[in-house]
Structure prediction request, 228 residues.
Amino acid sequence: MNVPVLNMKGATVGQLAIDAETLGGEINPALIKQAYVMYHANTRVGTSKTLNRENVEGSTKKIVKQKGTGGARHGDRKVPHFRGGSHAHHKQRVAEDYHKSMPKKMRRKANLNALLAKLIDNEVKVIDTLALGAPKTKDFSMFLDAIKVDRSALVAVGIDNDNVRKSARNLESVQLVPANQLNAFDLLNNRYLVIAKSDLEAYLAGPWSQTTKDAKLNPKGAKRNGSK
Prediction:
């Protein structure tokens, strides 16, 4: 498939040929969902808790006198049946493990397949050179308007691209991610993917593209014996 390559003003300046077979050939919803559930589960910390009477802030003063009011006898307001009070049988802060895992090759296939889904839906904006002269949020917002990004966007940038990263981080509808860490969870949580042509080519040719036995036998980017 041929993907249009845009400049910073939104004009088409070329095309990038991508082999759909390297991305899975066709969309595999079950595989993508499994990866999405895994990434989502792994964001959970598992240390939530609720408050008991000891943890609720407030006075321990008795709210009414013990007798003579015609109502129930109460102590302070921190009991569970008062608004703003504590929880009965409160949940303790116990570390719960929600971690899920997938085989490396399945995980990589799912990430590539999610990228294929975005390409098929024309939701990938490939930029010839993603760069700004200075960190300025207004300029980056105008850039998004020029390339017709009107919904949430996942912006993949290199770790050394400070001007773009600092310009985009204050926009509510933009999520930043290192260009070499694209995954199914972030791709599906945003409508568009904005990425530089060179970064996309590097991703498709890097170790994240190895989904066969070769990923173990001859991993790309691995240090060789005697190398530093």
